Amino acid sequence: MSQLLDARGLVRVYTARRGLLGRPARVRAVDGVSLRVKRGETLGIVGESGSGKSTLGRVLLGIDAAQKGTVHIDGAPMPAFGTPGWRALRARIQMVYQDPLAALDRRLSVAHQLREPLDIHHLGDGESRSARISEVMQSVGLRPDQAGKFPHELSGGQRQRVVIARALMTEPELLVCDEPVSALDVSIQAQVVNLLADLQRDRGLGMVFISHDLKVVRNLCDRVAVMYLGRIVEEGPAEAVFADPRHPYTQALISSVPQPGRAANSRIILQGEPPDPGNRPPGCAFHPRCPMAEDSCRRAIPETRAVGGARSAACHLVAPAALTEPA
Ligand code: SF4
Fold first, then answer.
1. Which residue from 39, 293, 318, 319 lies 20 to 30 Å from 103 (Cα-Cα)?
2. 323 CA distance to ligand 1 centroid (A)?
């Protein structure tokens, strides 16, 4: 599989005010993130809210500009936001948002909204655009008679299918999905996840799947990256990470997912408050909640290092690959 997305050293810092009279604080929402996605590969990005997952998704698409770092698509650098080069690239990299009602225009019919990307990117003529709309609607499980419907006339699941169809209209190579099923009823989440899996496999798409739902990520993704306060603390093949998480934060997250054969009392309950992106602890940012924290964790930021099996982790206590793999 060839490399499709190659992001290195991404940094995105915001200034945010806490409360009405609070002092502005610098929030390093994305703090030195590097990741790669091959064609036909799905990378899951997981972490609690405030970990920077959604900001990272926007940075990968160039919607939110990184202050540092680079994004390459198919070996070419991402053009600056809003430039003709970036607009042309957007046909090849699309986003599926969490809330379909917010992502769609309530005043426009399904057909109108699906035609828009073709108009914007000057793809096809009138006849071929209509054929493309029918083809994509069918591929996401929408009926032809729903083309004339408006968003409020559809169910939540159907609206998300429209959002996915809209993202597919330009035949993208990379799809960034930001919590694409979290606003849907549990009963239809599985349908939409299965749909994404089928589309990804059939079309050989590269996919970044941002989610807090570890069960979905385990079933859908080839690789998984775990984020904590803007950094990737562990990354590797999903099967290996779920079977044998190395980073204490990953271990806590994964212990909360029910698994056959795992005792209910084996769940690791994290102490302390959820992370505050505007108040990053010194040293390892996870140390106030880490059950294994040592003195050195409060002083030094752990480097990301290979830990064997195409995996990496950022923790002082995780042995590097050289110590775990035979020479
Ligand atoms: Fe825990 Fe220390 Fe590892 Fe951070 S570096 S995850 S505090 S053991």
1. 39
2. 18
Cα of 261 from ligand 1 centre, angstroms: 28
| Ligand 1 pocket, mutate which of 287, 289, 295 (most atoms under 8 A from CB) | 287
Q: Is the pLDDT of residue 111 over 80?
A: yes
Q: Tens of pLDDT along 9-43?
A: 999 998 877 666 677 788 899 999 999 999 999 99
Cα–Cα distance, 301 to 31 (Å, whole number)? 12
Q: Where are the domains of the chain?
A: 3-92+172-324
Mutate to test the pocket of ligand 1, among 234, 249, 316, 318 (most ligand atoms within 8 A of CB): 316
Ligand 1 contacts (CB < 6 A) are 247-248, 284, 286-287, 290, 292-293, 297, 302, 315-317
Structure-block tokens of residue 108: 């426009």
Say if residue 209's pLDDT is above 60. yes
User: What does DSSP assign to residue 89?
Assistant: H
Q: In this structure, which topology does domain 3-92+172-324 adopt according to CATH?
A: Rossmann fold (3.40.50)
pLDDT band at 279 (very low <50, low <70, confident <90, very high): confident
Q: What pTM does this model have?
A: 0.92
Closest-lying ligand 1 atom to the alpha carbon of residue 296? 2
